[in-house]
Amino acid sequence: MTRAVAHNAGRLPGGSAVAKPLRLAIWCAAILAVAFPAHGDPEVPLLGAVWPGSWAGLLLIIPVEAVIGVCFIGFGRKQAVKISTYANLISTLLGIPLAYIGLIMVAVLTEHWGEGSNSGLDRLYDVTLGSAGGFEYPDWTAPCARMFLCIPFFFVSVWSEYLLARKMLPKDDRPRALRWSWRANITSYSLIFLALTALLIYSLVAYSPDP
Q1: Reduced to 3 states, what is the DSSP secondary structure of residue 169?
Q2: Could you read off the pLDDT of 99-131 as tens digits, one per residue?
Q3: For the ranges 56-60, 72-76, 98-102, which has the lowest average pLDDT?
Q4: Is the Cβ–Cβ distance between 61 and 88 less than 8 Å?
């Protein structure tokens, strides 16, 4: 079974250049799937809330980024769909967990900054650098934490989608990969920010105490 999967992966557009990151992504996903539910640390749950939503969002993001490729970069339709699909699958499968792990490391190094304080600065830390942590979010701060997580996710997505698109394009077309990755991710993350802003406004209204 493993040999068959590896053999089929080698036939993906871009050949072995695509197969290598795909196999790495599959291994990372398997490790995360096994380790996270068994992990007792409270740093895991927020990824558990964000990652499934990222997969669901691909139903919108993949066609949007394919349209960007066709309308603004000059890709063919089939080419744009293939690049957008594979790039977003790898970005979601591998890039988001890696960005989250990096954020956890930053949170561990800076967690003492807000200790012993109940101030607004402490709450600001919780929803930014500490957003990978496992504290209990009031309704209105959960969208804020997710909005902050989008910042590292955005840059990792630009980088990972560019690398994969570059491998899938002919040599003469490779300079277009970076332009596509920036435009596509700016568009898709703008939509995500709009959705989270709407959720934040709703949460603020719903969380406001009755007069």
Answers
A1: coil
A2: 878 877 877 777 665 555 555 666 677 777 766
A3: 98-102
A4: yes
State the Cα torsion 201-202-206-209 to the nearest 10°.
10
Overall size of the chain counted in residues: 211
Closest CA relative to residue 111, chosen from 119, 120, 101, 122: 122
DSSP result, 67-118: HHIIIII---HHHHHHHHHHHHHHIIIIIHHHHHHHHHHHHHHHGGGGTT--
Total of domains in the chain? 1
Instruction: Calculate mean pLDDT across residues 141-165.
Output: 88
| 141 falls within a domain | yes
**C-alpha span between 83 and 202 (Å, rounded):** 35
The residue written with tokens 């599959």 in the block is 26
Residue-number span of the structural domain to which 116 is assigned: 42-207
* Gap between the Cα atoms of 141 and 144, Å rounded: 5
Pull the structure tokens for residue 176.
Answer: 């277009």
Tell me the backbone φ, ψ of residue 115, rounded to 5 degrees: -65, 140
**Burial 83-114, CB ≥16 within 10 A → b, else e:** bbbbbbbbbbbbbbbbbbeebbeebeeeeeeb
Q: What is the pLDDT of residues 22-34, one digit of tens each?
A: 555 555 555 444 4
Question: Is 10 part of a structural domain of the chain?
Answer: no
Residue type, 198: A
The model's pTM is 0.72
